[in-house]
Amino acid sequence: MVYSLLSEARAAGKKLLAVLIDPDKARRENLLELAAHANKGEVDVFLWGGSLVNALQAEYFLKLLKDNAKSTPVILFPGSVNQLDEQADALFLLSLISGRNPDMLIGRHVQVAVKVKRMGLETIATGYMLIDGGRPTSVSYMSNTTPIPADKPPIAAATALAGEQLGMKMIYMDAGSGALNPVSGKVIKAVRREVDLPIVVGGGIRTAARAAESLTAGADMVVVGNALEKDVNWLPELAAAVRSVSATAAADNQGSNAQETIDNKLSV
Ligand SMILES: CC(C)=CCC/C(C)=C/CC/C(C)=C/CC/C(C)=C/COP(=O)(O)OP(=O)(O)O
Ligand SMILES: O=P(O)(O)OC[C@@H](O)CO
Ligand SMILES: [Mg+2]
């Protein structure tokens, strides 16, 4: 199960790096290059999808990726119902809870529910939240929804909590692909304080320091797309930054588990 990768990582304080691949921009050489990085342990998860996907060869490219990066899970991150593919390991079943468009909250899901079940795809119910990233994004335009203002952490926290109370398994906060400003540490911290679910953060992350900041603020996984499309050679530095935050967080986590064991022993 791919979800256990996320939930167990969260429980252990391990931080994850996801690389978003836009099927429309996929090219054989780029995919083979990304697969080579993944095989060196620099990618934990591939996300596959886009707001608008036109590529006729998307299935062929996904097969190429799967064949060449056998141990890295691929999760579908679909903007539309025609992006399902049973070669993937799981599906982020996004419900756009920051918006008020019923189609994005439940309508599209009804359209594909039976098909998804028959495909045998693992579904990960995801509370998907757009946070204003400083400019209109493809997702807000295509979904006809307004993002949560970036300077309103309490609204983001209440939205995420509502998602958790509704039974969602994960929160994905997205400033939108190519956002000017990634989701702020303040917003991530506010959501982290309120919910216990795995938190994924993406949109506009272009530096290793920014990825580290998001993880330190409480994200469990960061997603990078555009910046790696421009320059994949940046990936080793990014992966090292994620591993470094991960090592600190895992040590803190062990420390607090040990303290909990001591407290429990003292209280009996
Ligand atoms: C239920 C199914 C299978 C589909 C609908 C799923 C929903 C509700 C999606 C929410 C809205 C949406 C359009 C999400 C897309 C997320 C995504 C893949 C973003 C990737 O970035 P792009 O927006 O494609 O960025 P570029 O414009 O840079 O390519
Ligand atoms: O392409 P970038 O800006 O890295 O965004 C990744 C992803 O979170 C977008 O949905
Ligand atoms: Mg795209």
From TrEMBL:
One of its GO terms (molecular function) is imidazoleglycerol-phosphate synthase activity. GO terms for cellular component: cytoplasm. Keywords: Lipid biosynthesis, Lipid metabolism, Magnesium, Metal-binding, Phospholipid biosynthesis, Phospholipid metabolism, Transferase. This is Geranylgeranylglyceryl phosphate synthase. HAMAP family: GGGP_HepGP_synthase. PANTHER family: GERANYLGERANYLGLYCERYL PHOSPHATE SYNTHASE, IMIDAZOLE GLYCEROL PHOSPHATE SYNTHASE SUBUNIT HISF/H IGP SYNTHASE SUBUNIT HISF/H. Mg(2+) binds at residues 22, 51. NCBIfam families: GGGP, GGGP-family, PRK04169.1-2. Sn-glycerol 1-phosphate binds at residues 172-178, 203-204, 225-226. It comes from Neolewinella aurantiaca. Residues 253-268 have a biased composition (Polar residues). It holds the Pfam family PcrB. Prenyltransferase that catalyzes the transfer of the geranylgeranyl moiety of geranylgeranyl diphosphate (GGPP) to the C3 hydroxyl of sn-glycerol-1-phosphate (G1P). GO terms for biological process: glycerophospholipid biosynthetic process. Its EC number is 2.5.1.41. SUPFAM superfamilies: FMN-linked oxidoreductases. Its cofactor is Mg(2+). Residues 249-268 are annotated as: Disordered. It catalyses: sn-glycerol 1-phosphate + (2E,6E,10E)-geranylgeranyl diphosphate = sn-3-O-(geranylgeranyl)glycerol 1-phosphate + diphosphate. Belongs to the GGGP/HepGP synthase family. Group II subfamily.
